[in-house]
Design brief:
The protein is an alpha+beta fold. The chain has three domains: about 10-175, Serine Threonine Protein Phosphatase 5, Tetratricopeptide repeat, CATH 1.25.40; about 185-230, no CATH class; about 250-385, Jelly Rolls (Sandwich). It contains ten helices and eleven strands. The strands form two sheets. Strands 1, 3, 5, 7, 8 and 10 form a six-stranded mixed beta sheet that branches. A hairpin with a 2-residue loop joins strand 7 and strand 8 (about 335-340). Helix 3 (about 95-110) runs antiparallel to helix 4. The radius of gyration is 31 Å and the shape is elongated. The termini are far apart.
């Protein structure tokens, strides 16, 4: 039976035609968008599982500040997430959330350059969300921090982070990203303080450096913490040091350091109001020309060895106590013990020879007994022979 067009309801026919006309472009648009959303959700769920199960972090954590995952089951799961998210990106390149998730995934997979590119796109598509700018700052920082990691993924934008790391433009980009995210220098300095107190010296040095990028110079205590952190992980001393905040002694010849000028290195003491970096003459039991330490108290100095050699270290000290029990002093190099001396209640000189490698070191004197106080008159360091030229 053939359709009799004369008997077709014209309004109904026109309605069907309109539906068909509208359905074709809607299918073209919604099909890829629906598929992109599907893969975005799938990838996001896997990424959340990796962050929570393997990195032991919350989904809202700043993952770009975390170290990359090592190879193993977690890395395989992470690659599944990246594959899903890259598929979502191919179906619809205008979904901002995909780029945020991709940036976070690239960060913890050890591909910070790709993370930068993804987060730049997210910040462009969704500029009102500070999370993108905040993660972008960490991704920029990670391009230098993990620059030795092999990057097998080709960046989608022309971001030469190797050049940025060398010429300082990277610092400007980090600062701009964090300012856009509403981050203050004080917030970053607080993170540095916590890392230093937790003996995470590499992280502390990084936080100090990044905080300084925002234009606020650290105070004397933080300059000391920053300098000590860098020395302990083999980094150069910060350029922002004031001479009255941190003293550096070059060991090319005999050097004598007054005990009162050693700097406090034990965790801060709120009772006595003693802070990291304070000179020992500020200690409540200190005396004119003498630095005082109580139990587990440590006074340090930053010394610079011009060459790897043996050095003679002499300490003039005494034990101040109401009992006959003897106190002990421990000589340390980079916070590691070198020798222990039993103190007398009279002024005595104690000597030890140690080998220092070329570069900066933290020379420390620690009181290791909970009996009275240790009084330090001076510490001297002398090279056993001249450095070869």
């Amino acid at each position: 039976m053939f359709l009799n067009y004369r008997r077709v309801n014209k309004p109904l026919a026109y309605g069907l035609l309109a539906v068909i006309i509208l359905f074709i472009p809607a299918t073209i648009f919604l099909g890829p968008r629906a598929l992109a959303l599907y893969h975005q959700v799938r990838g996001g769920m896997i990424l959340t599982d990796v962050i929570g199960s393997y990195l032991k972090a919350s989904p809202n954590s700043l993952v770009c500040e975390l170290p990359p995952l090592e190879s193993g089951p977690a890395s395989a799961r992470l690659q599944q997430a990246i594959s899903q998210l890259e598929t979502a990106q191919r179906y619809d390149s205008r979904l901002a959330q995909t780029y945020l998730l991709l940036g976070r995934a690239y960060c913890i997979s050890g591909k910070p350059e790709d993370a930068v590119n993804a987060l730049l796109k997210y910040a462009y598509l969704h500029p009102e969300n500070p999370l993108g700018s905040l993660e972008l700052g960490f991704a920029y920082e990670a391009t230098c921090k993990y620059e030795n990691i092999v990057n097998e993924h080709t960046p989608s934008q022309e971001i030469n982070t190797g050049v940025l790391c060398q010429n300082g433009d990277l610092k400007t980009r980090i600062a701009q990203s964090w300012i856009a995210a509403g981050i203050s220098a004080e917030q970053l300095y607080n993170r540095a303080d916590l890392a230093f107190a937790s003996q995470q010296y590499d992280d502390a040095g990084t936080w100090f450096q990044l905080a300084a990028l925002l234009g606020e110079k650290p105070d004397a205590r933080r300059q000391f913490e920053w300098a000590v952190s860098n020395v302990l992980v083999g980094k150069p001393l910060p350029e922002e040091l004031d001479a009255n905040a941190v003293s550096v002694y070059t060991l090319s010849e005999y050097v004598k350091i007054g005990g009162e000028y050693l700097q406090w290195m034990r965790p801060e003491d709120n009772y006595w109001n003693i802070k990291y970096g304070q000179r020992l003459y500020e200690h409540p039991t200190g005396e004119p020309g003498v630095g005082g330490l109580w139990w587990q108290g440590s006074g340090v100095a930053i010394v610079q060895a011009p060459c790897t050699a043996e050095y003679s270290i002499r300490v003039r000290a005494m034990h101040k106590s109401d009992t006959t029990l003897a106190g002990q002093l421990q000589v340390e190099n980079d916070l590691k013990p070198e020798a222990i001396f039993t103190l007398s209640q009279d002024w005595q000189e104690y000597e030890i020879n140690i080998t220092l490698t070329k570069g900066n070191h933290i020379l420390g004197i620690r009181y290791v007994e909970d009996v009275g106080d240790a009084m330090i008159n001076w510490v001297s360091v002398e090279p056993m022979k001249e450095c070869e030229r």
